[in-house]
Amino acid sequence: MTSIDPSTGQPLSPDAIQRILFIASKVHVYNIPPLTSNKGYTASTWTENNNARQIFTARLRILETAFPNANGSETVKTDILLEDPSNAALFAAAPYTNVSAVEQVLDSSRFFAIRVVGEGGRKAVLGVGFEERSEAFDFGVSLQEVRKVQGMDKEVVSAGRKVSGKGAGPEMVPEKQDFSLKEGETITVNIGGKGRRQRDETRTASSGTSEDGAQPFSIPLPPYGSSGASMPFLPPPPNTQDIKAERRRSRQNFDPAPGSTADMGFDDGEFGEFQ
Fold first, then answer.
1. Successive 10-residue mean pLDDT values, the chain, 275 residues
2. Cα separations (Å) of 212 from 48, 164, 203, 206, 258?
């Protein structure tokens, strides 16, 4: 069986391969009014007056066609087909060559505006409405996959860059600045508050009060003399040499008892104790 190109009605080469990417058994087709705003289409105007603008109930298919070229490469094209569900006769075809061929409405996720191409290249915009949100979601995912495979998203990005730069003249490239240190140059870093804490602690210790002005001790210090003199300090304890010298002087004041170590010639004060 010879394959037919749905957009032209002409037979395809025997090497052409067709693949169905999406199919919905029942969608509603609307004769929508011309677009009056740059914002987009609204489905509420299609379905008013008891769906007075509905013209057909069709089967929708997304058909991918791949056919080889003479140079060995391959061309891939995608068409959105609206067909008679009873006999599969073609009602309208929309070649999906750019993202503007299908546009979702502003007020519903189930309705889309599709740009179809008829005989002789005549173009029209038809409204398509799905009965189930899941079918509309799958339809959008299938179109997203087509855009990814055929690189339409990249074309949109590049076109946006051209439009934004149109008439702006040559792009001004900012001059690169060299912030590296030259030979002999140094960097001085001032860290705020460094050493401040140490000075504050020294000032607090010298004043005898804490930072908030309170006394550091729970028990107040005893008052000084009325004359303003400083508090007297206790004398330091005597060391070992002073104790030994005091003992020697005390022994010289009395005679040693007969038979004692001092009477026998031993000096108990100097060598009788461990140093």
1. 73 87 96 86 91 94 89 88 92 92 94 91 93 95 92 62 49 63 75 60 54 54 54 68 78 61 54 48
2. 77, 63, 13, 15, 73
